[in-house]
Design the sequence.
């Protein structure tokens, strides 16, 4: 089927998120939707998949105007979307999630949903694609890649003809990405239309037949592929971006800030044993790994948020194995979680209140100072928001920038989960500039990221995590992104 | 806040009260009663003279005291159901002083009030320790501690503190005169010192909540304890302090019940005022500024309901049904909650509209 968007507009309050967008997606093509963060890609795709209504404009399927009331209606029209965070229910099994949202075939199915026929259907689709999905597994035990696979299978079982994928390669390994891409190509060959929303240019180059580029809510370019990375960057930003250069640091003479000595910790089924790591002032350690491979556990354990089971944690030459997060916080340890609005920021408090909370001591709050400081942060971190906006009114990218701006100026140790989560290349490099500035002044940075390029670009050393096991890469310049992709899939020598 | 905003807010506060009064009047008519005489009885029972105003104030004082504490705990995101038990423990501690300390009032009154504060505070901190150290949710801990506090009171009344002439387990012996809180006058029997403490407490806690780091930390913990912890707030300490303060105010409310209202310790001494306080704080949406006023309406209704029951006994045809005050209270709660929702939506939309104009 062919989809046509005519003059789509979307307003959120004062923000004009989509400006008069007209696009055509022909049958059997893989179309890349490119644009920096906040360019309006996700909004446009949410309109097309029924998650949000457009303020004005039409959607035509094979020339027929359609009007939907929600995602289920969009699926009934053959359009399904794979969200960045899969929309599944953790406490249920693969099979149960597979049958969610489906119109029961008969009254009997409605009352006693027919498990055996659903199981057969699930099996036939997964076997077709070479997915390994156990119908009885709980969603919470699956990897991100498997959850994506389940979503694809679920949408296909509902006869979706157009599949929208929002940043599907974030958090999956090189092998898993290969599998996903080959299946997407297969589906396009069978006549399906695939829309890929991504800011990873190499993915777009590897997969897409054509691209459409958005900037500040409007279409600024469309072209057939192939194209080079430089050409796409020019389309996205209007100029060439310099690729960040890694400068080699000699840290041998710096003081050791953090030392992990035979450290063991565990959380659920994830166990980490005998970790040795010693980090010098100014060093950047990147933690690479698939979601839940131990990066988060390690950082939380270092931060004093998770108990040390064995071994020692030494910070600034003091044994802090049994100290709390607050003890470490007072001595310059900063920890930021990936789920910024659940863990890090406080919905309901304004920007200024966040700043006031993290600055100063004593009962009195110096509001004048807090406001001035907020102004600085808004300018320096390019936050699109006002002093008195509550944090949940800001977009995800802006929330991330606020979270990063709250990090004090001279921390001893920064532990950051996905510091540039949801940010486009441009703002991500802005954040990195601020972080590296702190490292140049002697702060240690330990961070995780699902983006392998980010880890390779900024780390002095890389700690690869796989199912709780770790492997240290002493010189990142000796490995490529593809090699690292294989390593996070568990292909490294202990 | 502009004048327009203020009048909208005021309107949205008054309309539900007027509507529920009208709706109850309709009900009275339907039952064949006379709404005018019902309402005039209610009004008179609250505002007829000094004595009736004093009666309302004697409900208002403990109600407001517990509510001050509850605003603090709610701001910290804690459902302090244990407030009833904290009142009872305040009452028990004050009763001990009243029964066993033979001192001149100038010493005994402050000592007893401090004892009541400590009793409530300890019971509040206990809820906090159960929560922070042992992971018992404050609702379950609170309910359990309420039952324990009431049983301690009953045990004391029926056992060690039983009046010498053989009581009926209904109360302790009446407290001696020097232990009772001094009042304004015989015609206006309101305990001066607690009225002052209530008003000062309102002002101080309001100031703490809105203008200090402690208030901001409470708010942060209440909205997202995990994030607050990561941003460096001592969340456990903040929760404990909130519960301690909440308990202290509840303890003072308990003191009012025993050192003035009953002049003795009785079973179920709190009279449900703790729970009414929870309702009050929810009704005003945790905004301490509205609390004394809405609290006064609730106190007036509570004081008036006794009068109304008396009227029904004499002239049943006028009232229709004696549960009317309950109906009126229920309607009031529903209406206020409903209009709270309307107000929130109105101001959210208003904000969006203003943002559009600025574009």
Sequence:
């Amino acid at each position: 089927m062919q989809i046509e968007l005519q003059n789509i507009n979307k307003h959120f309050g004062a923000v004009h998120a989509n400006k008069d967008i007209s696009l055509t997606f022909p049958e059997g093509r893989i179309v890349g939707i490119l644009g920096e963060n906040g360019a309006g890609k996700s909004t446009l795709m949410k309109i097309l998949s029924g998650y949000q209504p457009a303020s004005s404009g039409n959607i035509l399927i094979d020339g027929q105007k359609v009007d939907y009331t929600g995602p289920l209606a969009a699926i009934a029209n053959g359009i399904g979307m794979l969200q960045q965070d899969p929309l599944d229910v953790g406490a249920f099994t693969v099979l149960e999630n597979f049958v969610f949202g489906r119109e029961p075939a008969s009254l009997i199915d409605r009352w006693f949903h027919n498990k055996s026929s659903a199981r057969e259907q699930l099996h036939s689709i997964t076997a077709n694609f070479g997915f390994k999905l156990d119908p009885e597994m709980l969603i919470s035990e699956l990897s991100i890649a498997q959850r994506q696979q389940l979503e694809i299978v679920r949408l296909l079982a509902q006869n979706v003809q157009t599949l929208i994928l929002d940043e599907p390669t974030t958090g999956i390994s090189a092998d898993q990405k290969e599998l996903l891409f080959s299946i997407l190509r297969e589906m396009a060959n069978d006549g399906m239309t695939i829309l890929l929303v991504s800011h990873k240019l190499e993915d777009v180059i590897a997969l897409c037949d054509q691209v459409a580029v958005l900037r500040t809510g409007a279409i600024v370019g469309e072209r057939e592929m192939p194209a080079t990375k430089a050409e796409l960057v020019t389309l996205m930003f209007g100029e060439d971006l310099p690729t960040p250069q890694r400068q080699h640091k000699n840290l041998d003479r710096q003081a050791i800030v953090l030392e992990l000595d035979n450290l063991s910790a565990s959380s659920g089924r994830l166990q980490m044993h005998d970790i040795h790591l010693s980090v010098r002032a100014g060093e950047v350690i990147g933690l690479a790994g698939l979601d839940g491979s131990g990066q988060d556990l390690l950082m939380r354990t270092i931060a004093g948020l998770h108990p040390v089971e064995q071994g020692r944690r030494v910070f600034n030459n003091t044994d802090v194995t049994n100290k709390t997060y607050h003890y470490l916080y007072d001595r310059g340890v900063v920890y930021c979680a990936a789920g910024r609005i659940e863990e890090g920021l406080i919905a309901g408090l304004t920007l200024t209140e966040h700043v006031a909370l993290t600055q100063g001591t004593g009962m009195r709050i110096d509001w004048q100072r807090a406001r001035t400081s907020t102004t600085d942060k808004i300018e320096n971190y390019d936050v699109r928001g006002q002093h008195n906006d509550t944090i949940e009114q800001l977009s995800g990218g802006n929330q991330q920038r606020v979270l990063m701006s709250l990090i004090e100026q001279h921390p001893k140790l920064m532990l950051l989960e996905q510091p540039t989560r949801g940010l486009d290349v441009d703002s991500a490099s802005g954040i990195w500039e601020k972080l590296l500035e702190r490292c140049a002044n002697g702060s240690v940075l330990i961070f995780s990221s699902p983006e392998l390029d980010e880890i390779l670009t900024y780390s002095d050393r890389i700690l690869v995590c796989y199912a709780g096991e770790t492997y240290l890469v002493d010189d990142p310049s000796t490995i490529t992104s593809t090699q690292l992709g294989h390593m996070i899939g568990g292909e490294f020598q202990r | 806040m502009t004048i327009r905003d203020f009048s909208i807010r005021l309107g949205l506060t008054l309309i539900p009260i007027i509507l529920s009064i009208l709706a109850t009047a309709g009900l009275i008519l339907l039952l064949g009663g006379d709404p005018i005489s019902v309402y005039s009885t209610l009004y008179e029972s609250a505002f007829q003279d000094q004595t009736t105003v004093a009666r309302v104030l004697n409900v208002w004082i403990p109600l407001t005291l517990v509510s001050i504490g509850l605003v603090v705990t709610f701001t910290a995101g804690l459902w302090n159901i244990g407030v009833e038990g904290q009142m009872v423990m305040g009452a028990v501690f004050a009763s001990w002083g009243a029964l066993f300390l033979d001192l001149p009032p100038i010493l005994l009154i402050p000592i007893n009030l401090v004892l009541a504060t400590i009793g409530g505070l300890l019971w509040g901190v206990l809820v906090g320790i159960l929560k922070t150290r042992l992971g018992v949710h404050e609702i379950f801990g609170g309910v359990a501690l309420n039952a324990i506090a009431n049983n301690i009171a009953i045990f004391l009344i029926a056992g060690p503190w039983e009046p010498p002439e053989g009581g009926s387990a209904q109360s302790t012996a009446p407290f001696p005169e020097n232990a009772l809180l001094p009042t304004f006058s015989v015609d206006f029997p309101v305990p001066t010192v607690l009225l002052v403490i209530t008003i000062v407490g309102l002002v101080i806690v309001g100031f703490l909540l809105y203008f200090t780091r402690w208030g901001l930390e409470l708010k942060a913990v209440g909205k997202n304890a995990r994030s607050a912890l990561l941003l460096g707030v001592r969340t456990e300490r903040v929760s404990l302090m909130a519960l301690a303060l909440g308990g202290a105010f509840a303890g003072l409310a308990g003191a009012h019940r025993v050192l003035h209202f009953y002049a003795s310790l009785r079973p179920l001494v709190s009279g449900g005022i703790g729970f009414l306080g929870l309702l009050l704080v929810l009704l005003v949406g945790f905004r301490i500024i509205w609390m004394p006023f809405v609290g006064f309406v609730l106190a007036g209704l509570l004081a008036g309901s006794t009068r109304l029951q008396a009227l029904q006994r004499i002239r049943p045809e006028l009232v229709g049904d004696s549960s009317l005050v309950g109906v009126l209270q229920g309607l009031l709660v529903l209406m206020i909650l409903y209009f709270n929702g309307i107000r929130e939506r109105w101001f959210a939309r208003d904000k969006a509209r203003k943002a559009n104009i600025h574009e």
Observations:
- The first helix of chain A runs from residue 41 to 48.
